[in-house]
Amino acid sequence: MVQKNMAVGKSLITPVPKDNKLKKIKKGLYKSRYLYIMIAPVVAYYIIFHYVPMYGAQIAFKDFNPFEGIWKSPWVGFKYFIQFFKSVYFWRLIRNTLGINIYGIIVDFPMPIILALMINEVRNRIFKKSVQTIVYLPHFISTVVLVGMLVSFLSPRSGFINGIIKDFGGQPIHFLSEPGWFKSIYVWSGVWQNAGWGSIIYLAALTGIDPSLYEAAIIDGSSRWQRLIYITIPSLIPTIIIMLILRMGGLLNVGFEKIMLMYNPVTYETADVISTYVYRRGILGAEYSFSTAVGLFNSVVNFIILVSFNALSRKISETSLW
Amino acid sequence: MSRIRSDKEDIVFEIITVFFLTIITIAVLYPIILVVSSSFSSPLAVISNQVKLLPVGFTLKMYQMVFKHPEIWGSYLNTVIYTVLGTTINILFTALGAYPLSRKDMFGRNIFTGLFVFTMFFGGGMIPSFLLIKNLGLYDKIWALVLPGAVSTWNLIIMRTFFQNSIPLELQESAFIDGASDITVFFKIIIPLSTPIIAVMVLFYGVGHWNDWFSALLYISKRAKYPLQIILREILIQSSTQDMSGGSLSDQEMIGEGIKYATMVVATLPILCLYPFLQRYFVKGVMVGAIKG
């Protein structure tokens, strides 16, 4: 490695006419040839399973006929996008997708942070470890089991929640059949499942804070509360911003698998989101072009939001994804 | 003077923190305890909400019925196969991708990194991916469950960071001087030293495969090939449309409700068993990857 580097260094000192540039490229390629061999299957994977579908997304602009293939299918431009925008469901889908996501962000974005801060303050190692062990656990429960738990616990006849309600003399609530309850159940069960796991990243960042900052503050006679507010939280802000940007990038991408398990036609009014709609129209209904258009709309909007937020963050703070 | 005041404030601070953490821990633990207890309780007790903390009417019958359910075991086996095969492919591909990217002297390193990372933010979508699988002839085949997710870019970055930071460059350099090629270094030095991160990846990918149901929903139509989660979905979620009608439950329905809990436990058991062993690895792994990545 040392010898290879020295060789490159030599050619960087002398001026580089075009001929040498080509030579430099060839040299670089040759040096890394084994690395290319290693990475080749991975590149193939990305091309086949990520970039080819991106290419395939153009059927959103065509009247896709599976038998004719992409090339022969006629071009229809924005026909399906307009169909979607004019559709009866358009506003409902946008409202639900945004609604669930924003509700989610307001509730379950702060939770892991608060949890991490609290765990970080605990001094007893045994208590700390026990809390962490317990709190990470729900993350590993599958979505199906989680929703299964919801179905059972919220059941109007036999669920324990309604059991408590009945004990207090109330009427059982059909939680999963009431559109009004959907968003809350979705979001809060998500908190239960993921707040603990989500705190890991923040805990990791907290371990990176320079201890001498705290030492100085202690000498100055600060209380733990003050240290929390003036040292800990500000140090965490870059991490928070990055996580927030990433979260925003998925704004239109609500965890639809869970929704699909939780919803039923009765609750479509508040539960149906863009991705579940794409599934029904596209996979079940085989309306390939239309549903691809909807999905593409989703991806593009997400991307724009992500880039915008990143740019905004770069201007305001100094933190950004790129 | 101010130090004495701080001590009192500090104690209050600690009490409040411990108090809230305890409440949170209980809130997290309670549903899980309830599920486990209900799985050992008689169906009647479960239906009538008698199970609050400990099993009521202790019985192993629910588990016996689960063990006798043929589709549960068939799909269990399927899931094991998918998970083992899938995770092996995952680790192989992720490592093969992460190592070259960890080498700062790799020519064109940034291009490849960009190529991979871009896919985290934009994709073709559900429908084009679905059509791709069909066109490749992978529908209803195990490969449809195992190949599309072969590499998680997030995990790739974590692994790359590990290779960059935790494996001393001198070790690799001396191997190069001795005439080893990149590939030899990879297999003889990197992999043996990467046990912690591989453990993390086994956990992450393994759990992902074990819990995956949507891929199967999309790409598998033959019942015999269904993974556990699809069968679970039928038992836990889809059967309970009967539950919504109100009125008293028949014996059949009662047992149906009781079995659910035993099924939940049985389905999650492997992960719960693996969990204590791997916990020390993965927290460290995420930390290493996250801060520096």
- CATH level-four homologous superfamily name of chain B: MetI-like
User: What structural class is derived from the secondary structure elements of chain B?
Assistant: mainly alpha
- Poorly predicted runs of chain A are 1-11
The biggest beta sheet of chain A is recorded as: none
The beta-strand count of chain B equals 0
Percent range of helical residues of chain A? over 70%
Percent of sequence in beta strands of chain B: under 5%
Mean pLDDT score of chain B: 86
Task: Give the oligomeric state.
Answer: heterodimer
Question: What topology emerges from the helices and strands here?
Answer:
The complex is a heterodimer of chains A (322) and B (293).
Chain A: H1 2-13, H2 18-31, H3 33-56, H4 69-72, H5 79-86, H6 90-108, H7 110-121, H8 125-136, H9 143-153, H10 160-167, H11 179-207, H12 211-219, H13 224-249, H14 256-262, H15 268-271, H16 274-284, H17 288-316
Helix pairs in contact in A: 5-17, 6-11, 7-11, 8-11, 9-14, 11-13, 13-17, 16-17
Chain B: H1 2-39, H2 43-47, H3 61-68, H4 70-102, H5 109-118, H6 126-135, H7 143-146, H8 153-166, H9 169-177, H10 182-193, H11 195-211, H12 214-219, H13 228-236, H14 251-292
Keywords:
heterodimer, A: 322 residues, mainly alpha, 2 domains, disordered N terminus, B: 293 residues, 14 helices, globular
What do these coordinates show?
The complex is a heterodimer of chains A (322) and B (293). Chain A is mainly α. Chain A folds into two domains: 63 residues, no CATH class; 238 residues, Orthogonal Bundle (MetI-like fold). In chain B, helix 4 packs across helix 8. The chains are: A mainly alpha (322), B mainly alpha (293). The interface between A and B is large, with 105 and 102 residues.
